[in-house]
Automatic annotation (TrEMBL):
Keywords: 4Fe-4S, Cytoplasm, Disulfide bond, Iron, Iron-sulfur, Metal-binding, Methyltransferase, rRNA processing, S-adenosyl-L-methionine, Transferase, tRNA processing
Main localization category: cytoplasm
Co-factor: note: Binds 1 [4Fe-4S] cluster. The cluster is coordinated with 3 cysteines and an exchangeable S-adenosyl-L-methionine.
EC number: 2.1.1.192
Name of the gene: rlmN
Protein's UniProt name: Probable dual-specificity RNA methyltransferase RlmN
Matching InterPro entries: Aldolase_TIM, Elp3/MiaA/NifB-like_rSAM, Methyltransferase_A, RlmN_N, RNA_MTrfase_RlmN, rRNA_lsu_MTrfase_RlmN/Cfr, rSAM, rSAM_sf
Gene3D superfamilies found in the cross-reference section: 1.10.150.530, Aldolase class I
Keyword Iron-sulfur set for record: yes
Record's function text: Specifically methylates position 2 of adenine 2503 in 23S rRNA and position 2 of adenine 37 in tRNAs.
Organism encoding this protein: Paenibacillus chitinolyticus
Amino acid sequence: MNKPSIYGLTFDQLTAWLQPYGHKKFRASQIWDWLYRKRVASFADMTDVNKDCLGLLEEHFVLQTMEEHVKQESSDGTVKFLFRLSDGNLIETVLMRHKFGLSVCVTTQVGCNIGCSFCASGLLKKSRDLSGGEIVEQIMKVQFYLDKAAKEERVSHVVVMGIGEPFDNFENLSDFLRVIKDHKGLAIGARHITVSTSGLADKIVEFADSDLHVNLAVSLHAPNNELRTRIMKINKAIPIEKLMEAIDYYLGKTNRRLTLEYILLKGVNDAREHAEELAELIGDRRPLVNVNLIPYNPVDEHSQYQRSEKESVRAFYDILKKQNVSCSVRLEHGADIDAACGQLRSKQIKATG
Ligand code: SF4
């Protein structure tokens, strides 16, 4: 069996793991300093860590479980990475540059079972969950890339919006979040981290009850069940009423703002009446809800969907604003590379058979 990645251990898990071998908490602090502050690429580089301890780490863990397979750099600074995992599977990770900092979009599963009808990733069924370590390593790989450029740039924001349904891999997602938030390590602020779900109601409740305290985004994409089921088949099992119940629980429990993602598909869900219906659905949740409108990135696999006209996006936005719904339009990143989620991966898989 392959050895697990050391990045998968939270600080407390590493401390507990070292204890039976007679190593104190101080040793875990030393190791974390090498992992996340000095960012070494091998255990041997941890020069002040006791030799016995290094031997143990080498025997039980690995530092690198994936390698860069393809990298696409856009003229706007977006970088798309395709990583090859130790079992040969390919996953996508994206670095995006914003005015407010550098964000990384991570993948949580190999493939996805949710089957959203517009998504290039959803065509490839889930073959497995990523481990917590594999999710952390995506951030580390991007940080190594930035370190190499020596511009003192740091990953400041994380969005869990890549391939996969993060709440379908809840335990590993939780470990990942604990590792990247920890002030002893990467210290990415909870307010700078957003997890996006297709709407697994039970998990939204579990997330609200957890101590994770990061931002939540829910993919809505339609204001009524008939249309949402057409776009996202998960809506059959978890209709809008059930989703809204979970959202209300989340808002009541956390009092944190929540984002509703709404992908605009030309002639499907981008009409004025859809905007009106959406405002009505949001109702008195307005103070805690922001709608993120996402102009669709067309992919060959789903030729039935096109990007909404600029005027439709504007009109949709204006109606929501007029109805006092907080709303934004997502800027496109990496338009000159394979911009849509999963596009690079599915192209590579097709090319290599
Ligand atoms: S949009 Fe996300 S949840 Fe839906 S199929 Fe694609 S990867 Fe899965």
